[in-house]
Amino acid sequence: MNEVIKVKKKDGTVETFDPEKFKRAMLKAAIDAGYTLEGNEDLTLVDIITDDLEKELEGENEIDTATIRKAILNKLERFESSIVGSWRKFEKKYKS
Q1: Are 25 and 87 within 8 A, CB to CB?
Q2: What are 60-66's contacts with CB under 8 Å, separation 24+?
Q3: How many Å apart are CA 33 and CA 66, to the nearest integer?
Q4: Which of 29, 44, 54, 87 is deepest in the core (most CB within 10 A)?
Q5: DSSP letter assigned to residue 6
């Protein structure tokens, strides 16, 4: 990814897109869903989704976190819906 994409957060602040941040969130949700992540399969899934998201964002200058979240959850739903459930439980518990 050559161009810098800005991410507009809920509070209105803007920061540089960091795919590693979303990767960490997916990994935490996977662990919470009961995946050990000791094998490469789950890590590969997270990498695939992150790479796919980066490709979709090519050419964008700014995007909001809600759009990124929706894209990630839609992709995860296709592969592993239990991770999506854990992500939503986390959000409900900690980000109310």
Answers
A1: yes
A2: 60/5, 61/3, 61/5, 61/6, 62/5, 62/6, 62/7, 62/8, 62/14, 63/5, 63/6, 63/7, 63/8, 63/17, 64/7, 64/8, 64/9, 65/7, 65/8, 65/9, 65/10, 66/10
A3: 22
A4: 29
A5: E
Q: Give the list of residues 6+ apart from residue 14 with CB closer than 8 angstroms, or none.
A: 6, 7, 8, 62
For the record, the structure tokens of 65 come out as: 């976190």
User: Which sequence spans correspond to the domains of the chain?
Assistant: 19-94
Count CB neighbours of 6 within 10 A: 13
In angstroms, how far is CA 77 from the centroid of its own chain? 12
Cα→Cα distances 30→16, 59, 71, Å: 25, 30, 17
Report the alpha-carbon angle 84-86-87, nearest 5.
65
What confidence score (pLDDT) does residue 1 get?
46
